[in-house]
């Protein structure tokens, strides 16, 4: 397996594959090969049967496909994408048949479509959380908010469940296409912050309007979209079941581990 971009999620995928006997090489700050070392990358790709990219768009394009796409033919391909490609559906349930490209993540949507055209398994991920990257850190840093937006919901997924989904797709040689990896309970961000506060015994932050919270432009965009992400295809095709079906189990696990 050759992985482009050994970040928070891909690092855990690499670890899981390595423990089952896979040889894994990767680019990234914790990888074995610099992305720009073209001879080394080409040599590793030639020796790899499987390739996974977690590299996000750059300059409105996909750096991996732009530079190394010609070397990927005939290999098992995977790509970590985002459910942001679906845009805003005003709280409605969406699945892999839902049109993409109508939201604010236009570059991500374009890259998502390019990887699908290349024959990849495209894993569309909602808000990712896990050890070291959860509501607990936002509370500790004073960055947790409760926003007064009735009916606003988000989907999310524990990083461990992403790992299980990708590994299942590798082991089953899943057919190319899009797969939503999301938990079973889309819910408000307020509910997640409240549960995290309960688990550590602190009062939740006050309920605020968007203006009062003084959110960044990125956070404003986050709250501008409202959708529920269905995960039935991953369950049917990959035999995948989230170990953390809701944020409650996920947060409790992180708290117990820490």
Index terms:
258 residues, alpha/beta, six-stranded parallel beta sheet, two-stranded parallel sheet, 38% helix
Please give a structural write-up.
The protein is of the alpha/beta class and 258 residues long. It is 38% helix and 15% strand. The protein contains 11 helices and 12 strands. It has helices at 8-19, 38-46, 63-68, 106-117, 135-140, 159-171, 189-200, 210-213, 217-223, 232-238, 247-257; strands at 2-4, 25-26, 50-53, 76-82, 93-94, 121-125, 127-129, 146-147, 156-158, 177-180, 207-208, 228-229. The strands form 4 sheets. A 6-stranded parallel sheet has the order 2-1-3-4-6-10, sandwiched between helices. Strands 5-12 form a two-stranded parallel sheet. Strand 3, helix 3 (63-68) and strand 4 (76-82) form a beta-alpha-beta unit. Helix 7 (189-200) runs parallel beside helix 11. The longest helix is centred in the middle third of the chain and has 13 residues, at 159-171. It is globular and about 55 Å long. 38% of the residues are buried. The model has no long low-confidence stretch (mean pLDDT 96).
Question: Topology, pairings included?
Answer:
Layout: E1 2-4, H1 8-19, E2 25-26, H2 38-46, E3 50-53, H3 63-68, E4 76-82, E5 93-94, H4 106-117, E6 121-125, E7 127-129, H5 135-140, E8 146-147, E9 156-158, H6 159-171, E10 177-180, H7 189-200, E11 207-208, H8 210-213, H9 217-223, E12 228-229, H10 232-238, H11 247-257
Parallel strand pairs: 1-2, 1-3, 3-4, 4-6, 5-12, 6-10, 7-9, 8-11
The residue-averaged pLDDT reads: 96
The best one-word shape is globular
Q: Give the terminus-to-terminus CA distance.
A: 31 Å
> Biggest sheet, in brief?
6 strands, parallel
The number of helical elements comes to 11
Uncertain regions spanning at least 5 consecutive residues: none
- Order the strands across the largest sheet as they lie in space: 2-1-3-4-6-10
Radius of gyration over all CA atoms, rounded: 19 Å
* Helical residue percent band: 25-40%
SSE series: EHEHEHEEHEEHEEHEHEHHEHH
Query: What would you call the structural class?
Result: alpha/beta
Beta strand count: 12
Strand percentage, roughly? Answer: 15-25%
């Amino acid at each position: 397996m050759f992985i482009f971009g050994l970040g928070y999620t891909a690092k855990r995928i690499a670890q899981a594959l390595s423990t089952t006997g896979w040889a894994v090489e990767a680019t990234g700050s914790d990888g074995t090969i610099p992305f720009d070392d073209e001879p080394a990358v080409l040599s590793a790709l030639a020796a790899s049967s499987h390739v996974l990219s977690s590299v996000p768009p750059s300059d409105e394009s996909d750096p991996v496909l732009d530079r190394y796409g010609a070397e990927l033919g005939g290999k098992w391909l995977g790509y970590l994408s985002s459910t942001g490609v679906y845009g805003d559906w005003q709280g409605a349930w969406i699945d892999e048949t839902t049109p993409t490209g109508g939201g604010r993540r236009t570059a991500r949507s374009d890259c998502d479509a390019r990887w699908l055209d290349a024959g990849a398994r495209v894993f569309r991920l909602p808000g990712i959380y896990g050890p070291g990257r959860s509501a607990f850190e936002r509370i500790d840093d004073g960055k947790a908010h409760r926003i007064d937006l009735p009916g606003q919901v988000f989907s999310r997924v524990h990083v461990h469940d992403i790992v299980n989904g990708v590994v299942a797709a590798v082991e089953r040689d899943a057919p190319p296409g899009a797969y939503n990896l999301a938990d079973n309970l889309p819910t408000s961000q307020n509910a997640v912050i409240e549960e995290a506060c309960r688990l550590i015994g602190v009062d939740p932050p006050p309920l605020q309007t968007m203006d009062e919270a003084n959110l960044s432009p990125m956070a404003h965009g986050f709250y501008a979209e409202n959708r529920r992400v269905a995960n039935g295809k991953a369950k049917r095709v990959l035999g995948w079941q989230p170990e953390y079906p809701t944020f409650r189990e996920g947060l409790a696990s992180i708290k117990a581990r820490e």
